[in-house]
Predict the structure of GTR9 protein.
Amino acid sequence: MENKQQSNGEMKENKAAKKKTNWSGSLIVASLTGAFGSSFLYGYNLSVVNAPAVYIKKFYNETWERRYGFSVDEGTLTLLWSITVSVFAIGGLVGAIIVTPIVKFFGRKCTLLLNNVFAVTAALLMSLALLVGSFEMLILGRIIMGVDAGISLSALPMYLSEISPKEIRGSLGQVTAIFICIGVFTGQVLGLPEIFGQESRWPYLFGAIIVPSLIQVVILPFLPESPRYLLLEKHNTSKAEKAFQTFLGKDDVSHEVEEVLAESRVQRNTKLVSILQLLRTRAVRWQVITVIVTMGCYQLCGLNAIWYYTNSIFSEAGINHETIPYVTLSTGAVETVAAVFSGLVIERLGRRPLLIGGFGLMVVFFAVLTVSLTLQKTVHWLPYLSIFCILAIIASFCIGPGGIPFVLTGEFFQQSQRPAAFMIAGTVNWLSNFAVGLLFPFIQGGLQTYCFLVFAAICFAGATYLFFVLPETKNKTFNEISQAFAKRNKLSLEVQEMNHYPGERKSSAEQESNFTSSVDNGETKKGIV
């Protein structure tokens, strides 16, 4: 009995020790630095164009008049402004498409570092546009900044998912979403009239982009590359062990190395698969569909419509024009607090309840917002209810849908499939982003106050799909998550493994021998998915 109690006590101590070692200093610095120079800039560029919109349009008009001798007509000015806002998503799509070969060749960390070339170039173009008198520089800068965002929103979640222990994979993955929110909030603060929201100062809003990039360039080189990338794709065991030791804060990492090698032995090779191969792989069919649905809903649920057109929505709600910039700050603050809350509870509650619950709450608040906007002229306090609904929609989005899709994309797929999966997720993400930015003004014009019912329907459809399809992935390895999907993919686990790499099955000894031989020769065994 005493031995049993002693054994239980030791197990508890081991668990506590394991919990303490999960968050090492290097892991925290890598995640914060990586996110600050990546997802922070994405969020910042979503909101930064709102405050100086009037001054930028005036700059467009003055430039046009100086060149052609007459003022630009209203339709052309609106078109130029719409292009300025929406080309960010076009650049993002380009970045999402080119990220796979980049992360394969340079690695996850080096991709994040090289990506700063796009950010600095874009910042210089946009901040110098007024001085040079060229609005084309501003538009080109937005495209290049979009490329930066497209690369970072794939490379950063990939890097974070590969350096984190599975016990805190969700919390660390939420760092991406938290810094998007902080970026949005920072863009709103710097855009206030007292800071850079003035006619002579708006170029500084774009010049500020250089600061996070430089910080990342200075700090990130001193941190290791993804240990999984080093071990499985570069076959460098010694560097991988050192990376594990740095990120986990302990000397003995033999268990972690063996865990990754065991996954690799099951996979039988680590040759990167193409998008077409991934789409044809029956064993991950529902994983791919789920990523497409979550990423589609992430953009189409209507939150970006609120960010792009915050000022007009608050005007419709009856808020005084001079007060709008300060009321807008509350949206960024609520978003940040909700994202931090999600990061703190995701490992306790899991991905499913936060994701489904977030979409479900958005349905409710979109419905109430529609009613309040429709009837606001009849009841004097309804504009305040509209503001509450907007804040509640933002909070509901950030507790789940705002970050978990990136986490799931990293969790669903094995090493060789992950880059292609992130390319698919990124393509859906940016196409949906572009569609919302382009179509929302027409939807708003046609449906008036009923426009948000479209987003409510999308959120409802997403929540329903996830309720029936999405398994809980908290604290699970890739193989355990694959097993959870095996029944829906109509495969036994054994057949599922064969589907990853079709061909004649080999004995475990033969597989291990081949893998070891492959690593020793510095080659990767060829396999077709």
